[in-house]
Amino acid sequence: MLSTIIAAMLPLIVVFLLGYRAGWHHDFTGEQVSVLNRMVMQYAFPLNLFVGIAGMPRTILAGQLPLAASVFLIMCGSFGLAYALSRYVFRRDAAAATLQGLAMGAPSVPFIGSAMLPVLVGHASTAVAISAAVFAMVLVQTPVCMVMLTKSAHKGPPEQARLAPQIIASFREPIVWAPIVATLLVASGIHLPKSLLNAGELLGNTAAGVALFASGIVLFLQRVSVTLPVVVTVAVRNIVIPAVSWLLLTLLGLSHEVIRTAVLALSIPVGTVVVILAVRFGTDEQEAASTLFLSAVVSVVTMALFIACVG
Questions:
Q1: N or C: which end of the chain has fewer CB within 10 A?
Q2: Residue 206 to residue 211: CA distance in whole angstroms
Q3: Residue pair 23/221 in contact by the 8 Å Cβ criterion
């Protein structure tokens, strides 16, 4: 078990620290990090998801529907519940509650999951879990946050304050339509040549490493301050949500493989999208960056714990 945990966690830590060192050594600026992230989101990750799904037999893909539904619904549900508690119970302003809800409900599954999960659950389950997380993040969480932050901060063109245009725009993103197209191909019984899928893997396999490297640079560039809201958000994101998900999915009687993959995916720390939106709208930037930093540091212990428990 210890060797499995090390195999899953060590690559994440090494690449993350290399990125942090690159930021400390001033090898990359914030603008260059944006270029790296754009390459990952526009090309590498879409190819990674497309190849991972398109290479599955139809029977395997059909069997992964409970996993996809579990990850998607828990991410959307935890985001909505966290926002409601932050806004109406703890009386935080709308912008702060929105970002806190996103931090709790949006684990960095696309980035960290693609590096960690294949070692633990295999490539097929990894591709499905990541695709479900991407759909939740890009089609639900991010559009809703864009609308709420635009209304709260009064920044951006009027169409950003409407939900429908945000969702339509999301479907134009390669990271959304690539897994959808791959799923339709598999469902239709169309199998692409292995040589073509291998060509896509060449760039697609760089996604996790580049994304983690860029995240390390971001953490160095942002100011860090540990406050009570930061600690609460990290505790909920890293411990409470995966633990409750484990209990809920067990009560629903899902298979051990589905529960294990979903819990491990949902134990992943806060996604960088929180910092990106905080910087874009000039709202609670320090809290967002601090949450990202502390969640990533604590995840070395909490993720190892969940790997040991559900493995």
A1: N
A2: 8
A3: yes
Q: pLDDT tens for residues 30-84?
A: 788 888 878 887 888 888 888 888 887 877 777 889 999 999 999 999 999 999 9
**Backbone torsion region of residue 17, taken as left when φ is above 0, otherwise alpha when ψ lies between -120 and 50, otherwise beta:** alpha
pLDDT digit string, tens, across residues 90-108:
999 999 999 999 999 999 8
Q: How far is residue 237 CA from its own chain's centroid?
A: 12
Residue indicated by tokens 């302003």 = 93
In sequence order, what E strands does the chain have? Answer: none
Q: Token pair of 272, please? A: 């960088």
Task: Say how far apart CA 25 and CA 75 lie, in whole Å.
Answer: 36
DSSP 86-121: IIIIS---HHHHHHHHHHHH-B-IIIIIHHHHHHHH
The full length of the chain comes to 311
How many beta carbons lie within 10 A of that of residue 91, not counting itself? 8
Q: Which of 277, 13, 6 is nearest to 149 (CA)?
A: 277
Burial of 252 (0-12, 13-18, 19+ CB in 10 A): exposed
Q: What is the CA radius of gyration of the chain?
A: 18
- Quick: pLDDT tens for 243-286: 999 999 999 999 999 999 999 999 999 987 887 788 778 788 88
Burial class (CB in 10 A: 0-12, 13-18, 19+), 4: middle
Reading the block at residue 154, the tokens are 């009064």
Neighbouring CB atoms inside 10 A of 150's CB total: 19
The candidate with the shortest Cα–Cα distance to 220, out of 25, 11, 2, is 25
Calpha distance 288→215 (Å, rounded): 13
CATH T-level fold of 2-310: Na+/H+ antiporter like fold (1.20.1530)
With CA atoms as reference, report the closest residue to 111 among 253, 292, 302.
292
**Residue in this structure with the two tokens 């993040």, named with its chain if needed:** 137
